[in-house]
């Protein structure tokens, strides 16, 4: 291992042949020391090497094993500072992480940039503390709760509305192929770029195809996958595809792309209801309902915040 730089979570995941969520879990449990640069977590090669040797039984756990560099440098024990994993891809979650860190010395948020279904599964497995989801049930048009209730079986949880945003098609500037509706994706002259399985955009596409009884075998480019909204918009701008599904905000970041709105999607947060999370839920509700937080999101544009902070569902 190289000694002259620190590793990102993605690099550590590749070295250990595990998911990034597993790396976050090792850090949360104090098994792998880490520190943060901005919102990004970094791990020193020496600490990773020590963890690997401990896993092989070559080293006994050190007395500092349960402390991250961040908590040690602050002279606070690991038990006093809780590392939080906030999972999802919208920039609003980065802002929420900043507010959480400022609001309480007890929380140290870390960000995991994965899709809605994977986020919910990570919560079921105990890897994530706050997850975001924008999953539509195509026939009913209901967002999120149908999926959450199926995945978080036998858990108690609260669903809090974060924001509403527009989702639809990215098309080439001027929309030369006149793409306006899901039915247009059947056309042989249209090639799509798709999102990865488990993302909200992928679920939106699949549920819309199901609703309009369009077989995926008729969709040119269905298996061409990228992993975020900007990559979808960029593929359309470069001419690698004619259309892709995503949110309006990403279209503002990419030149030579127009956005065709199709749905107003609900973007909600999920937190498990237990004794450990009682303070966390209270802090999140207080932040979401504050004028300062809402004003920061308003400054970004493109969000409907009229229901931000409302409890959608709890059990």
UniProtKB/TrEMBL annotation:
<dbReference type="Pfam" id="PF12728">
    <property type="entry name" value="HTH_17"/>
</dbReference>
<dbReference type="InterPro" id="IPR010093">
    <property type="entry name" value="SinI_DNA-bd"/>
</dbReference>
<feature type="domain" description="Helix-turn-helix">
    <location>
        <begin position="7"/>
        <end position="54"/>
    </location>
</feature>
<dbReference type="InterPro" id="IPR041657">
    <property type="entry name" value="HTH_17"/>
</dbReference>
<dbReference type="InterPro" id="IPR009061">
    <property type="entry name" value="DNA-bd_dom_put_sf"/>
</dbReference>
<protein>
    <recommendedName>
        <fullName>Excisionase</fullName>
    </recommendedName>
</protein>
<dbReference type="GO" id="GO:0003677">
    <property type="term" value="F:DNA binding"/>
</dbReference>
<feature type="domain" description="PBP">
    <location>
        <begin position="98"/>
        <end position="289"/>
    </location>
</feature>
<feature type="region of interest" description="Disordered">
    <location>
        <begin position="55"/>
        <end position="74"/>
    </location>
</feature>
<dbReference type="InterPro" id="IPR024370">
    <property type="entry name" value="PBP_domain"/>
</dbReference>
<feature type="compositionally biased region" description="Low complexity">
    <location>
        <begin position="58"/>
        <end position="74"/>
    </location>
</feature>
<dbReference type="Pfam" id="PF12727">
    <property type="entry name" value="PBP_like"/>
</dbReference>
């Amino acid at each position: 291992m190289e000694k002259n730089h620190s590793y990102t979570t993605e690099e550590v995941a590749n070295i250990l042949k595990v998911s990034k969520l597993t790396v976050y879990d090792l850090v949360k449990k104090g098994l792998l020391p880490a520190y943060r640069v901005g919102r990004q977590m970094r791990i020193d090669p020496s600490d990773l090497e020590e963890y690997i040797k401990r896993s092989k039984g070559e080293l006994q756990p050190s007395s500092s094993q349960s402390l991250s560099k961040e908590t040690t440098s602050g002279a606070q024990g690991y038990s006093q500072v809780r590392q939080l994993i906030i999972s999802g891809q919208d920039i609003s979650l980065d802002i929420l992480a900043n507010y959480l860190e400022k609001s309480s010395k007890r929380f140290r948020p870390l960000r995991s940039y994965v899709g809605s279904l994977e986020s919910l599964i990570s919560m079921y497995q105990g890897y994530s503390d706050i997850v975001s989801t924008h999953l539509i049930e195509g026939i009913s048009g209901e967002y999120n709760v149908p999926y959450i209730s199926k995945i978080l079986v036998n858990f108690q949880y609260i669903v809090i509305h974060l924001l509403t945003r527009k989702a639809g098609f990215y098309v080439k500037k001027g929309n030369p192929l006149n793409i306006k509706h899901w039915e247009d994706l059947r056309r042989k002259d249209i090639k799509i770029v798709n999102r990865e399985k488990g993302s909200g955009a992928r679920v939106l596409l699949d549920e819309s195809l199901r609703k309009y009884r369009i077989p995926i075998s008729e969709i040119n480019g269905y298996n061409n996958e990228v992993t975020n909204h900007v990559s979808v918009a960029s593929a359309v701008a470069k001419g690698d595809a004619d259309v892709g599904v995503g949110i309006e905000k990403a279209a503002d970041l990419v030149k030579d792309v127009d956005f065709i709105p199709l749905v107003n999607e609900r973007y909600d947060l999920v937190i498990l209801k237990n004794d450990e999370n009682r303070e966390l839920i209270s802090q999140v509700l207080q932040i979401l309902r504050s004028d300062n937080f809402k004003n920061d999101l308003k400054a970004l544009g493109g969000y409907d915040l009229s229901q931000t902070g409302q409890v959608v569902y709890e059990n």
